[in-house]
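Sharing in case it's useful to others searching the archive later.

Someone asked me privately for the predicted structure of V-type proton ATPase subunit a, so I'm posting the question and my answer publicly. Question first, with the sequence:
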Amino acid sequence: MGELFRSEEMTLAQLFLQSEAAYCCVSELGELGMVQFRDLNPDVNVFQRKFVNEVRRCEEMDRKLRFVEKEIKKAAIPMVDTGENPEVPFPRDMIDLEATFEKLENELKEINTNQEALKKNFLELTELKHILHRTQQFFDEVELCLCRFVAGVISRERIPTFERMLWRVCRGNVFLRKAEIEDPLEDPTTVIHKSVFIIFFQGDQLKNRVKKICEGFRASLYPCPETPQERKEMLAGVNSRIDDLQMVLNQTEDHRQRVLQAASKTMRVWFIKVRKMKAIYHTLNLCNIDVTQKCLIAEVWCPVSDLDSIQFALRRGTERSGSTVPSILNRMQTKQTPPTFNKTNKFTSGFQNIVDAYGIGNYREINPAPYTIITFPFLFAVMFGDMGHGVLMTCAALYLVIRESRLLSQKSDNEIFNMVFAGRYIVLLMGIFSIYTGIIYNDCFSKSLNMFGSGWSVRPMFGVWFTLDGNAVLQLDPAVPGVFNGPYPLGIDPIWNVATNKLTFLNSFKMKMSVILGVIHMLFGVSLSLFNHLYFKKPLNIFLGFIPEIVFMSSLFGYLVLLVFYKWTAYDAFTSREAPSLLIHFINMCLFNYNDPTNKPLYRGQMGIQVLLVLIALACVPCMLIVKTMVLRRQNILNIHNAVCANILVFSSQFNFGDVAVHQAIHTIEYCLGCISNTASYLRLWALSLAHAQLSEVLWSMVMHLGLSSRSGGGFFGLSIIFSAFATLTVAILLVMEGLSAFLHALRLHWVEFQNKFYSGQGFKFVPFSFESILEGRFDE
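And my answer, the predicted C-alpha cells:
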C-alpha cells in the first residue's frame, strides 16, 4: 500500500543470457513488461551492431505488410481483430515468414499490373466505341470527298482551350465537332469525364498541326473508317472485345478480392509477430557480447517487487529455447539515479497522467496522484457546482465507464473522444463532486430546490400587507423574532434565489470559502514535504525548511482562516452590522496599524496576539534565508577537515557558498511571496463559481424563460424548439466550455499552488521494454 504514495523501489540488475536462449528470454521479458534495458553500446554505430541484419529483415517484412495493408484498405475490406496475442516466432521461423510475405507481395503486384493493363485496354476500347457510335452524325454534316479527318477523345475541361488553340494555329481552316460522353470513364488511377471530337481539315500540313495540338492536349486519337459499313463492322468487333475484356476484369478482381480477404484474416497476427521480432532484435543490440561469443550481458532497471516475476520469465525463456544453461540475474550496487515508476490501474492512470504532465517525480519522492484523486475533482466542483450539470456530466461518464470494454474494442481514431475516454474516471468524479457542491450551493440549472422548506418567514412581521403594497422589495430582518427560524438543513436557503442581495451574500460566502480551501490545500502540501525529508533523512530540511515554512504560513494565513470561523460564530443577527472587515484587519496586522477607528477589534487581546504572530512569521524568514546557508557552510568545513585528517583527497568545488546562498535566497523569496500570490490565486474558485452560476441564470432567463412564459395554443411546439436550443447551449457552453475552463483552473491550482510545496518533478520516467506498449503505439497510428 505504501507504494501507492511513493514511486516503486527500483534496482539496477545485470543479466547474463546464453546466446541460444537470449532471444526467447528477451521475448518473455517483453511479454512481462517490467524491465528497462540500458544501452551498453552507446559509442557503437547503429549499423555496426550485431543484430542489424535481423532488424533490417524485420523492417523489410514490415514494409511488405504495410503494402498489403494498404491494398486491403483500398479494397475496403475490414481486417479481422480477434484480440489474439500470438507468441513470438522463433528466429528459424523468419525464413518462412519472409517467403510468405514475398509471395503475397509479388502476387498482389502481378495482379495489380495485369489489372492496370486490362483497365487501360478496356478504357481504349470504350473510347473507340464511343467514337464509332457518335461520329456518324458528324460525317453526315461534312462532305467526305473534300475533307480529311482525325477522331479521338479528350478531357472535358480542356475542350474550350483546345478549340481556341485549333482556331488560332490553323487560322480557322479546320472544322471541329464534339459531343460529351455521358458516363464517366474509369482510368486506371481515377475517374474522369471525357468528350468525343472529330476534326475535319484539308492537306497534310494541317494534318501535322492538328496531330501536334492533340498530342499537346493529351487527347487520344483512334482510327476511324470512312465508310459506314466499315464503322459498323468495327463497332461490332469492339463490343465483342469489350465483353470478353469485362469478363477477364471481373475474374481478375474476384481473384484479387479472395487474396486480400485471406490476408486480412491474419494481417494483425502477422504485424504483431514482426513487430515483436523487430523489438527483440533491437533490444539485443543494446547488450554486450562477451569475448567467448557465448553470452550476452544486459543491464536493466526493474522494480524490486517484481524480481521474482523477472526470474520466472527468464526461466521460461530458457526452457522455451531448449537451452540447458540457466540465465542469471545479478543485482548491482550503483550511485546512478533510478527511473521513477508509479504503478497504476485504469482508475488511477488518469490522475497519474495529470501529475506526470507537470513533471515526472524524483525517485521515491512523494507521489501527488493519490491526493489528486480527491482534491482535483473537488476543486473543479467548487468552480462548477450545479446539481443539474453535475448529473449530466455523471451520466456521460457512467456511459463511458459501463461500456468501456466495447468502446475499447472499437478503437476510435477520434483524438478528442480518446482523450475524454482515457479520463472517464476523472470526469465521473468531477460530476459526482459537482452534484455535491450543487447541493451545497442549492443550484440546479440556476434554480434553487426547496426540499426542506425555507428558514425565513414573513408571517410574524407587523404590517406585512402594507409593506408588500407600498414597497417593491420586502426586507426580511433576521433580528425580528419568528422571521428567521434557523438555518436551512443542507446547503443555502432557497429564498436567496429571489433575494436582491443574492450576489452580495454569495460573494462573501464563496470568497471566504475559497480562502479557507486554498490555505488548507497549501498547508497540506507543505505538510507532505515533511515525509520527503524524513524518507531521504534530511533533518536540516526539517528544522530549517519545513518548520519555518509551516509556521510562516500558519502564523499569517492560517490565522486569517481562524478569524473567518471566529467571525461566523461570534456575530449573530443583532450584532452583525457591527462586524469589522477581516481584510482590513489582516492588512493592519501586517502593517502593525492598530489605530484604525473604523475597524474595531474582534476580540480582547487581539493586538498582542497579532504582533506576536507577525514577529514569528518574520523570524522564520532569516531561518530559511541565512541560518540554513550558514549551517550548510559549517557542515562543509567540518567534512573537509575530517577528510584532511583521514588523508582523503577533497575537491574544493564540491561546495560553492555563493551558489548555495543565491539558491536559498531564491527559494525563500519565492516561498514567502508565493504564499501571498497563491492564496490570492485560490480566489479563482470564487470567481469561476459565480461566473458559472451567472451564465446558467442568463441562459435560463434568456432562452428557457421565453418558452415557459408562452400561453398561446402553439406554446407546446414553441417550448419543444426552445428546450432543444436550451439543451444544446447548456451542453456546448456550460458543460463543455465552462467545464474545460474549470478543469484548466483546477489543473493550475494543483500544479502551481499545491505541488510546488513538496514536489520537484525533475525525475525521468521508467520506460520498460513491453510488447503491449509497442503494439499499442503501432495500431494507434
